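Researcher: Predict the fold of Geranylgeranyl transferase type-2 subunit beta.
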Amino acid sequence: MLKEFYRQAHVAFLSRHIDLAMDGRTPTFELWFIGHKKLSAAYWTVGALFLLSAEERIPREALIEWVLQCQHESGGFGGDVRQDPHLLFTLSAVQILAMLDALHRVDRDHIARYVASLQRKDGSFCGDAWGEVDTRFSYAAALCLSILRGASEGSVAGGCAAPLATLPYVDVPAMVDFVMRCENFDGGFGLVPGAESHAGQIFCCVGTLALCGALHRLRDGGDALGLWLAARQMHSGGFNGRPDKLHDVCYSWWVFSALAMIGRTHWVDAAALEQFILSCQDELLLGAHPANGISDSAPGGIADRPGDQPDAFHTFFGITGLALMGKHGIGPIDPAYALPMSVVQRLRESNVQNKESD
Ligand code: GRG
Ligand code: ZN
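Model: Structure tokens for Geranylgeranyl transferase type-2 subunit beta follow.
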């Protein structure tokens, strides 16, 4: 039987998580999972509530105040109040502020300089002052700066219209060259040059190329990558992140958004993927099935795979997967910005206005 999407239950689950992220004194399993990554957890929950058209459940002003308190004097943001800054949390902060239309509440130039300070001579990015390099950080930098500048014209989905993007303070050609050094013989990308292809890193590398207007640099015009990504679909309909690994809901985003950016979503079975995501919904109360009408009162949330404990991360990436497919009235979402299309559209308009006032 085809499964239903339990929207109300997920909205309730996500609302509980926003409160947890901002308060955090209640020692619960969910809080243990969120740990020090509260700002990113807030991005997942706010993003999911937006995509479910449940913005009214977001405590907007309290959330903005808390995000602002997470900023460090360097310009970067920590995962919570009084934590060291990191590029990934800085991205989450900027994404949350963009969704809440509150970017005017921060000094954007200060944040952009912090991001740029993490670029190294070879074009790569560190996540923080401790010097670890990872293609996740290239993407975080490209996206952060794209949002702070105001999104560029043209859609990145299915190929990028723009030539090499200009991003404030960073060396974009070097940034792209470093990402291309992480491309493998199989068409995929890894964490650093020579590292194994992994769907999460592929999303980051393809996202960086898309935001920088450099998707044309892909090997075989993207065919090798498309084949590698399509091979991630398993009999369950779900994707794994690399060969011989288990299926996992979050790859619905990492894999399908990369396919969307290179215009090849039709190379996989979207209906089977949808059913896999729905089968990962919390079903604690669902000895009863949807027909009896109590499905929306389940605890809510989506797990990594059927029968596992739901969490905010997989709830967000399950919902973003459905949003990419345009299912259940969710979305739409931009695959490179990982933000609702309406938010990216608003950023684009602000970019045009900024240019006119220059
Ligand atoms: C704004 C959407 C967005 C992202 C920000 C943090 C980040 C940038 C990207 C993370 C990309 C990534 C590496 C995702 C993979 C996450 C994951 C499921 C890791 C588990 O890896 P393994 O090797 O799991 O433990 P497998 O599935 O290979 O067993
Ligand atoms: Zn996962």
